[in-house]
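Hi R.,

Here's the input for the iron/sulfur cluster complex you asked about:
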Amino acid sequence: MTKDILEKGAIIQRDKETFAIAPHIPGGIIDPAGLRKIADVAEKYHAKVLKITSAQRIAIVGIPPEDIDNAWLDLGMKPGAAIGLCVRSVKICPGTTFCKRGQQDSVGVGLKLDAKYHGMELPWKFKIGVSGCGNSCAEPAVKDLGLIGTSKGWKILVGGCSGLKPMIGQVLAENLSDDEAMNLVEKVINYYKAHAKKQRLGEFIDEIGFDKFKAEVV
Ligand code: SF4
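And here is the predicted structure with iron/sulfur cluster in place:
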């Protein structure tokens, strides 16, 4: 077996024999019991290592294919959306919940976005970053959709990406309340879903032109 198993969220490893699974941890925020459970499952199925990922997951790496189903059962989780053409991740910084520099509630808004969009099927893979201030610790400028907290509200960037063809997101709107930001995110995602071909949001925006895109969604 040498391929990812999409429906099981299982990613083939370099040894071409074992898989990684990546339990979904919204915002990378987990309590000690949750962390212990992941460690217990990793130990039970003889994982080679746990890897903290850039999408704020903890991947259990190196489990044999026959143990994948039981590992998910023991975790008590459905396979997350670490792979596939969908909203892969909502990366969230500590914001006003934990960080002294926070200017907006990135944890509150980010978790709402995660609950609503994580795993949603879209024309291509899609990443969201939510940062509580301009320091941009969740890398919103290189996400398909980025939110940055300022003293006046949320700034929204679209079309960033850190993949093979890196792109910096463009500012779509500024000074938005939490609700206004959520509404605009919904419009962006709906428009992308309805009109894009198999392409990332930034490529779609380049194709139709930023001004047209902005006029359609704002
Ligand atoms: S982006 Fe700002 S609020 Fe968020 S963790 Fe970094 S410094 Fe703190």
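One thing worth noting: The chain has a mean pLDDT of 95.

Cheers,
M.
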